[in-house]
Amino acid sequence: MNKKRLIIIVVIGGLVLGGLGYYILYGNLKPQPTPESNNTAPSTEANKRDLEPIIKIEPLDDSLSKAPVPNLARPITFPEGMTEDKKKNTEAKIREIIARLQKNKYSYEDWIELGIYRKSVEDYKGTEEAWEFAGLIKPSSALAFGNLGNLYGYDIKNQAKAEESYLRAIKNEPKLVYWYVQLAEYYRDIAKDNSKARAILERAMSANPEEAEELKKYAENLR
Question: Residue 125 — left, alpha, or beta (φ > 0 → left; ψ -120 to 50 → alpha)?
Fold first, then answer.
């Protein structure tokens, strides 16, 4: 093997190893979707979507550092008619989430999940506190605010806060049609305002032209 050929082999080998090293170092940094918070979570609006990629981390701002953390010792109460097995499983899950939050009070996913379970036992105040704090942790997320929209609109019955929360979710994720439809349904079913429902669907069509045909059909049913 002559000297020139040896140099070529060394160079090629270096490029291959370098490329492999780059893949190992950077290839694994692609955002990976987290699993659903728990497969046994109650069926609510909050767990119909995957939680956001765990690699998307936002810096904690002053408003969060100054905000009081919701009371993790809040009593766990149960609505009338809930079975003993359901009570036992729900309480165990809530305590499991609380234990995690005691170690990391800024865990967005855990506050979202705690709100789901608080809502399942009709603790709407506890649910509100959990999702509001989640919104402080990740203010650019739509999930916490969309869930608050559902909570205020259908459970707490606060129209102003429901509308504000839905609109914040839409602002944060304007390409996600789901929240436009949720707000349109709220306007139609609860606020009894079809003109507002049509207006928000028109806004959805403008932001998502690829979904315009389906949204148009939906809007026609509101006439």
Answer: alpha
Q: What angle do CA 102, 103, 109 make, to 5 degrees?
A: 85
What is the distance between the alpha carbons of residues 52 and 157, in angstroms, rounded to a whole number?
28
The answer to whether residue 74 is domain-embedded is yes
| Of the ranges 16-20, 42-46, 208-212, the best mean pLDDT one | 208-212
Q: How far is CA 46 from the centre of its chain?
A: 7
- Does residue 87 form part of some domain? yes
Question: How far is 127 from 155, CA to CA, in rounded Å?
Answer: 11
Cα first-last separation, the chain: 83
Q: Does residue 181 sit in the same domain as residue 128?
A: no
pTM over 0.85: no
